[in-house]
Write a structure and sequence with these properties.
9 helices, three-stranded antiparallel beta sheet, globular, alpha/beta, 380 residues, 11 strands, eight-stranded parallel beta sheet
């Protein structure tokens, strides 16, 4: 097993390679909110990549070949991001209802060829400005894979194979990334990510030499350098640790001879409920209350340091920039806001419903860490 190593910092932050860093943002925004996000990414968080999840169901809600108003606006935003010099990474998921026999939750189309046709159309629209595609999102969660294709790694590879052929028919070099798996065990709503990945290899993943393997190595409230296991809850299972997740994924790749491709961390981050009212809505999310804004900042910077020290780890995409700014999510206790770098408020203080936005310490820690010449005195 290849070691990840550890990273520590005290008086000054380490210098990070911004080219290998990305941030995911919600792009379903009005023009003024998009401009605000682009300003922040241009002036402060000048990372090399931005990631946007593109829901197929919103692009073609009514039938094959459609390009909705949502898509027209999204395309303008992608073109704007490209003009600003960002590399653009799309995660494409969520089939429309017309392509699915199963009508509840989210899932793949009945026929992978329908997804391939959609990708061909999208590549024709923006293939020249998109710099990478993640094929689906967390297919080991049933809420993301409700449908007729088997809920297995082999089932996912049916979709991946069709998507790969469609993308390669247009671009021989674009990075194609397998869907990052949710780090979780077997349950009514999930498949163990390690088992699911092994099934992907049994179904032929190792034959693809010009791709990368996606990973979502969330770490709950455990530091990135920590190893399993403890006895305090959410530290008693390897799925709850950034390092264990990454090591296990890499070991599975090595066991299958897939050593010449990288792991791309297509989602990761640490949440905190600091400053928000109430508590995270869903049962079992009380662990989020254990992280404060300084845990969020220190753990994230540390994870970037660890990842950038390993040649087998590619770009790392932080989740997320701006979900706390979306209407109603904080009031509804939506856990996605706990990861957000930008929140409603002023001077670092959360003010729910405020017309102004403010930043969490991690925002300014990233600002500092990607600028070797900067050493801020404070981050709050």
């Amino acid at each position: 097993t290849e070691a990840l190593g550890t990273a520590r910092f005290a008086d000054t932050l380490p210098d990070l390679n911004r080219v290998q860093m990305g941030i995911q943002l919600d792009a379903n925004l009005e023009q003024s909110d998009w401009d605000e996000a682009m300003y922040r990414l241009n002036e402060h968080l000048t990372v090399g990549w931005i990631k946007i999840q593109l829901p197929w169901r919103d692009v073609q809600p009514n039938g094959a070949g459609e390009l909705s108003t949502f898509w027209q606006r999204t395309r303008l935003y992608l073109e704007d991001a490209d003009r600003r010099g960002f590399r653009i990474f799309l995660s494409i998921a969520k089939a429309p209802l017309w392509a699915r026999s199963t009508q509840n939750e989210d899932g793949p189309p009945d026929d992978p060829a329908q997804f391939a046709a959609f990708l061909t159309q999208i590549m024709g629209e923006v293939g020249g400005i998109v710099d990478g595609i993640e094929v689906w999102n967390e297919p080991n969660l049933i809420r993301e894979w409700r449908g007729n294709i088997p809920f297995t790694g082999g089932g996912y590879m049916q979709l991946f194979a069709a998507a790969y052929r469609a993308i390669r028919a247009v671009s021989p070099t674009m990075p194609i990334i397998t869907a990052g798996l949710a780090p979780t065990g077997n349950s009514e709503g999930s498949r163990d990510d390690r088992s699911f990945m092994r099934e992907m290899y049994a179904a032929g993943l190792g034959a693809y030499g010009d791709i990368a393997v996606g990973a979502h190595p969330y770490s709950w409230n455990n530091p990135p350098e920590a190893n399993c296991c403890g006895t305090n809850g959410y530290d008693d299972d390897p799925h709850f640790f950034f390092g264990d997740n990454m090591r296990d994924y890499r070991q599975i790749m090595v066991e299958n001879g897939h050593t010449d491709v990288q792991l791309w961390v297509t989602e990761f981050g640490w949440p905190t409920w600091d400053g928000f009212p109430g508590s995270p809505f869903e049962d079992g999310n009380d662990w989020i209350l254990r992280n404060d804004v300084w845990d969020q900042g220190n753990y994230t910077i540390n994870a970037f340091v660890i990842g950038q020290a390993q040649p087998y780890i590619g770009p790392m995409f932080l989740w997320n920039l701006n979900f706390a700014t979306l209407e109603g999510l904080i009031q509804n206790g939506d856990e996605r806001v706990a990861y957000s770098l930008v929140v409603p408020g002023v001077g670092g203080d959360v003010i729910v419903g405020a017309d102004t936005l403010t930043e969490r310490p991690l925002y300014w820690m990233l600002y500092d860490a990607i600028r070797p010449e900067v050493n801020l005195d404070t981050y709050d």
